[in-house]
Amino acid sequence: MRYLPLTSADRAEMLESIGAASVDDLFVDVPAQARLPGPIEGLPAHASEMAVERHMSALAAKNVSAGSAPFFLGAGAYRHHVPASVDHLIQRGEFLTAYTPYQPEIAQGTLQVLFEFQTQVARLFGTDIANASMYDGSTACWEAILMAARVTRKGKAVLSSGLHPHYGEVVRTMAKFTKDEIVSLNTELTAEPDDAAVIAQIDDKTSCVVVQYPDVLGRIPDLSAIAEAAHAKGALLVAVVTEPVALGLIEAPGNLGADIVVGEGQSLGVGLQFGGPYLGLFGCREKFVRQMPGRLCGQTVDADGKRGFVLTLSTREQHIRREKATSNICTNSGLCALAFSIHLTLLGGEGLAKLAAVNHARAQAMIERLGRIPGVEVLNEAYFNEATLVLPRDAREVVRELAERGVLGGVSLGRLFPVADGLHKGLLVAATETTTAEDIETFATQLEELLVGVPA
Amino acid sequence: MNAVNASGWRPSMGEAGQAGVPATSSGDYGLMLEEPLSFELGADGKCGVDIEDADRAPMGGLSKFLRKQMPDLPGLTEPETVRHYTRLSRQNYAIDLGPFPLGSCTMKHNPRLNEKMARLPGFADVHPLQPVSTVPGALEVINELAFWLIDLTGMHGVAMSPKAGAHGELCGLLCIRAALDARGEERHIILVPESAHGTNPATAAFAGFTVRSIPATPEGRVDLEALKASLGPDVAGVMITNPNTCGLFEPDMKAISDAVHEAGGYVYCDGANFNAIVGKVRPGDLGIDAMHINLHKTFSTPHGGGGPGSGPVVLSEALAPFGPLPFTARTADGVVHLVEEENASEFDHTQSFGRMVAFHGQMGMFTRALTYILSHGADGLRQVAEDAVLNANYVLRMCEDVLPAPFAKSGPCMHEALFSEAGLAEGFSTLDIAKGLIDEGFHPMTVYFPLVVKGAMLVEPTETESKAGLDRFIASLRSLAERAKAGDESLHSAPHFAPRRRLDETQAARKPVLVWQG
Fold this sequence. Notes:
The complex is a heterodimer of chains A (456) and B (518).
Chain A: H1 8-18, H2 49-61, H3 84-90, H4 93-96, H5 108-125, E1 129-130, H6 137-152, E2 156-159, H7 165-178, E3 181-184, H8 195-201, E4 206-212, H9 223-232, E5 236-241, E6 260-264, E7 280-284, E8 297-301, E9 307-311, H10 318-321, H11 334-371, E10 377-378, E11 386-390, H12 395-404, E12 411-412, H13 413-416, E13 426-430, H14 437-452
Parallel strand pairs in A: 2-3, 2-4, 4-5, 5-6
Antiparallel strand pairs in A: 1-7, 6-7, 8-9, 10-11, 11-13, 12-13
Helix pairs in contact in A: 3-11, 5-11, 6-7, 8-9, 11-14
Chain B: H1 11-18, H2 38-41, H3 78-89, H4 112-118, H5 121-124, H6 136-153, E1 157-159, H7 165-183, E2 189-193, H8 199-206, E3 210-214, H9 224-230, E4 235-241, H10 253-262, E5 266-270, E6 290-292, E7 313-315, E8 327-330, E9 336-339, H11 363-399, E10 417-419, H12 430-439, E11 446-447, E12 457-459, H13 467-485, H14 505-510
Parallel strand pairs in B: 2-3, 2-4, 4-5, 5-6
Antiparallel strand pairs in B: 1-7, 6-7, 8-9, 10-12, 11-12
């Protein structure tokens, strides 16, 4: 077996050295009736690299990859161009095959990357500080709600109707078990986000309001107004960013009064990967640092006085604090954080602004073209790279029919909100720097044929 | 300033002067390269990506939302970026460089075929919300891996979406909560052995349970009688790690399960150490109701400096109906379906506790783990467990005369060998051995865990190490034990040859600097 260095002779010699007659002697603690006599029946035996590659490649070939078709999906996962150097660098064995940096003297590479990553996230979000990553945006969102409850000592969270429905589901699932009160608002097809409705729900018991920015329909809430209303009642504003590239164009939530900013970092460096692994981003005000979940990397000096980095404030964490920890999180998304950090280093602030401008321009071109199709209405007054169209019929069917015509034409609101009424004609469409004018024209032509018929 | 260890000496630095060679003006020493922060290297206006200009201005509706100032993030060109991260990478130890015997963490070789397969566009460049008709291969990967995990563990079902081990623990406990709710019972206590990973009690508390600790026997096992005495109508279940964190198999596991079931509770098994028994024994045969499997441990998806992980949870018949959405299901016609909120009733899964993550779990880890599993096959995985256990026992027996092994006097260990610091000279501790190993060119073992052994050193060599590699490691460990027994003061200032010497963790925590201040 190509991954196992011990030879039969080694095994025999080692067993003799330790005074065991056979390897089964080492499994004596396993009750005899539970011990399997040989390889589990019905499962295949080992296979060569070539055979495994053939099998996996055949499975991969059954999928329509985003790059092989005109592609307009977003809804919390975005297709951006990832520079070749990003994937090369994250595959360096010293990064790929290292563990959590518990021995800092020989993990300065990972630690310095985390320190740079925390700085980048904080500056992008406009927060004082950021942690070393969470699992993904949805779990970061739940952790933010728990943290807001610890900070305010109150237990009612108000979720904006513009929050990604999967994020809302994760929050409601977890809250069933913790008994936190969650107020969810119904999503409606309106041009403006639900700022006023969110503000109306804030009362003295509210720990936080959770507002996605831009929201799941691509609309942009007025965070300043919501922050002001929340702070007046002693509640925190948790802003959720599922498309961090947007922050190259629109104001950072932390600069608009958000107390905690969480997000999904997949857009930078990580890739679509059918939903994971992704990258949870988490930033907040410095005064909350001891209530934060997750790992933190901090600067210090070594015995020679040289600058170095360590994991710090671990008294918040499970391996020290056990049942009193701020979170149960242990493994996070280190390698995805590295990819994000490299991509953002390649871009720099100006590059990010340029990238954001191109995304927005492509989205405008897309929306203008699609909006000219008879019967198609554009919902949004403002958007970044994603907006909602209202079609004359069920968008879910349209998406299926588009796929049959070779176009991956957005995410229907019926797919995102399967149980909600009145949204089924909504279609969420996104464009990025990878979207070409030809893609847009193909999409528009096919959509028009489906909705209006082939022009005579 | 040098409060950590002012008395330290550093031959690598001293030699420069002694040999008549002056210190370098750059501060670098040959291949020992220092590296500033990216922000100190970068400059505004530098960019490593060519981006075309936008062909239109922002829409009017956006004007009141525009960012007033760009984030202050200096950029780097591509050559500068490649060099920055390559130089940083060289300050890391990694399994690609040598043994990384972190007990409980399972640092084994990460086959590069797994990386190659995960990067096939059909897996890497697929959106989670594409119409299911365009992703049959992705669903098949999830389903195929699910079947392997079920067969290898002898369980009834598996929840694939948890993002890492601790997230899997949460999934298992939420299944238990949902099952108890369905029975109309309000049990609120979870029993956790003292030797458990910190995530166990943290997860139980996170899921709203009260944690009660149960003691270990002097042999390092769960105390069955104490556990039985703790059972009662308030107890929702137990969380047991098996093989446990002392590197021992719990021989009473079935009796523990039976007693817990008898008392109306459920058995959660922390599967962090499944790599020791894969193909040798099935947890389902021991009465386990739920167990997470760290794909980044047993099935060799890379640890990546702290993630991403992946923590599918195998479930018994009693708990499977409560597992989270979404999941995959194969129907008689061979088609694999994605089961989500709206079609759960078609698949008779209406009791699910809900959704744990935005999409379908760690697909990129599933492709890697399945590639690893197919490469090994049923026979190879069994050999993996046997070699891992043999390697650990070899380390145990070759070192136990110089380092006491408190729980292995009477019998073998499983995949990790546990030593204690007892017998070192006064003032010498596990930390000195660990830092000494760094100078010897090895990554230290897990130290000060499990908590039930004073100055614990938990060595997990895994099946990745050759006999020659183990012999070198053993020689170093023995030499360090001898030096610590003899009171060799130079150990206190180790490491001497690493990119950094001991770091001042107190200063880092007292006044935290978490972002660059420049």
